[in-house]
Amino acid sequence: MKDSNFLKENNGRLIWHPMTSPKDSADNPPKIITGAADVSIIDIDGHRVIDGVGGLWNVNLGYSCQPVKDAIAKQLDTLPYYSTFRGTSNDVSIELSFELSEFFAPDGLSRAFFTSGGSDSVETSLRLARQYHKLRGEAGRTKFLSLKKGYHGTHIGGASVNGNANFRNAYEPLLPGCFHIPAPYTYRNPFNETDSEKLAQLCLQALEDEIAFQGANTIAAMIMEPILGAGGVIPPHHSFPPAVQEICNRNGILLITDEVITAYGRTGAWSGARLWGIQPDMMATAKAITNGYFPFGVVMLGERMIEVFEDNSEAKIGHGYTYSGHPVGAAAALACLAETKRLNVIENATARGTQLYEGCKALREKYDIIGDVRGGHGLMTAIEMVGDRLTKKPIDGGTAQTVQEVAYQNGAMVRVSGPNLILSPPLVLSQDDATTILSALDAGLATV
């Protein structure tokens, strides 16, 4: 291992980091994280902070989950890799598919297609949606609908259905036939509607209008996050997801829930679909399935998909990844799923999520720079900062970075996304840990 001076000198110089510019990484070197334990991370200078980001929404069980580490080590000694392409399989991926079918049975999902991560899971869902309609004799159903402000990863299909221009503009033209519906974002929306239930109805009408305009028989699927995550933690009114499903069903459109963030307990329910009482045709998952300890994902499939693919000899899936069903990832996922259920993390996610949400609302009463606080569903909370509450003028990027840096120096890593400070800590967060995060945020906000 190179010494700390070498690492600091080269930090931000030789790596092109995701979601920023090479120049920014060189001018503002990223923090070098060298250790982690429980729900804390430790940087190269020995500074220890609560990880209010949970890695990247994925370290639900914290950094000291020994059963998952043991499962990975054991599997490396037994079968470190083998392909699941045509003609071969492995024992742990079979066992995992059974456990997942049991876990997602209430969501109406019972088949698994394994991937390497969240973007892969989204891409797989989009591809299988198009193939589903071709197999049914409706090859003209190629278009996709999604929500503005939604985030669906970085592959060409996922970027195309992303509802944020920041993830699209540099790579356009993208996949044709992708159309975006206004999100049920109460704080900012084109209807200037602040009532969440009324806004949900306006967005649903926009969905109906878009389907009518495009022609239902041209649309393959609607993809949406049950709660918009990277877009700023935007939960819909409870009437919205069931109505979206009804509209999709009525028009022969598949519904894909992007649960790369929301599956496995993040929302205080075992899935975002279950939170809202819906049953999607496909569910894209990843992140917490292995607690971040191994790159892995899975698309879970429902009855409509199963009937068409399993009863058709022509339904060859010409798609997959070298690491689909990777035995080490599958072993990690099995251990992670068992520990997630044993700890019943949804209870603590609800309790600590309420604590953070209420604490952030109290900070809004204290600081005019806070325009909106969103959360209330598990451990997903966002503070949206503004330069002026009356006009909702967004703050400049430097202000958000200052809040983040001061919070870090005061004991908590928080995430900046545009004008938003996003909290997505591990689901095993303690009451004292949550208090530390709120105190650190208080210090950061006081500074600006």
Describe this structure in words.
This protein folds into 2 domains: 31-64 and 344-447, Aspartate Aminotransferase, domain 1, CATH 3.90.1150.10; 68-343, Type I PLP-dependent aspartate aminotransferase-like (Major domain) (Aspartate Aminotransferase, domain 2). Helices cover 40% and strands 17% of the residues. It is built from 15 helices and 16 strands. Helix 7 (156-161) links the parallel strand 5 (143-147) and strand 6. The longest helix is centred in the C-terminal third of the chain and has 22 residues, at 345-366. The two termini are 39 Å apart. The relative contact order is 0.15. The model has no long low-confidence stretch (mean pLDDT 97).
Strand order of the largest sheet: 4-10-9-8-7-5-6
Task: State the CATH architecture of the largest domain.
Answer: 3-Layer(aba) Sandwich
How many E strands? 16
Proportion in β-strands: 15-25%
What is the CATH fold-level name of the largest domain? Aspartate Aminotransferase, domain 2
> Overall mean pLDDT score?
97
**Which outline best applies?**
globular
Give the helix tally. 15
Sheet of most strands: 7 strands, mixed
CATH superfamily of the largest domain: Type I PLP-dependent aspartate aminotransferase-like (Major domain)
The percent of residues in helical segments reads 25-40%
Distance between the termini: 39 Å
What count of domains describes the coordinates?
A: 2
The radius of gyration over CA amounts to 22 Å
CATH class of the largest domain: Alpha Beta
The class by helix and strand makeup works out as alpha/beta
Which blocks of ≥5 consecutive residues have pLDDT under 50?
Answer: none
